[in-house]
Structures are given as C-alpha cells and as structure tokens.
Amino acid sequence: MANRREFIQTGIAASVLPIVATAKELLPQPQLYKVIFDHRFPASREFAAEMEKLGAPVYGIHGDITDLWFHDLYHRWKQSPAPIAGMTAHGPLFCLERLAWDHEMRVLYRTDSEPLISWIIGPK
Fold first, then answer.
1. What CATH number is attached to the domain comprising 16?
2. How many structural domains does the chain have?
3. What is d(CA 120, CA 122) in angstroms, rounded to the nearest whole number?
C-alpha cells in the first residue's frame, strides 16, 4: 500500500506530462538545449528519465546551478538563446530566470507542484 509520500511523488511525476507536451508545442524547432533536474527529488529524477527517453540531453543538479551556469549555460547563451526546461525547486528556477533575462530569454511555461516547479525557458 502506498504511503502519503509515494502518493505525492506519483502526483508530481504525473505533472511532467504537460511540460513534455508544452515543450513540443512551444518549441518544435529548435530542440531543448538541456533539461535540468534536481537529484534531491524522486519526481525530478523520474522527469529526467522520461525526458532522456525522448532524446533530450539532461543535466542533474543538487539544488545549485553554479557549475551549470559557469561551465555550460553562460557560454552557450553568449552565442545565442537556447531553450531549456526543467523540474527544480524555486531557488534554481529563480536564478536561471534572472540569468536568462540578460540573454533575451524568459520563462515560457511554469507549473507549481510544491516543492517542485516544472518550467521552460526560451527566447522572448
């Protein structure tokens, strides 16, 4: 029998279906540059596994986007805007959203399912 935590995690995992459909609808070309997930949350790991099955490049964080920013996104977004998606806590999305503004990008889709947020960032 499922406990409360498993029930909630299943509900959060089910919430990833709209982000997959929305990503395809909003961003048919180009593909997502990266899909960000947080290793700390089972639902986020399940989301990453599903996105990886669809062929999306996934990148895991542990609540901190510093390495992702300094070693990847900063250099990529300097060339041109590149859409990303993810399922993270509020903090990482807040930071990515702020950084995206400087590169002519914004949050295109967002859905909250405490403690996680499913989101897509793309060109304005």
1. 3.40.47
2. 1
3. 7
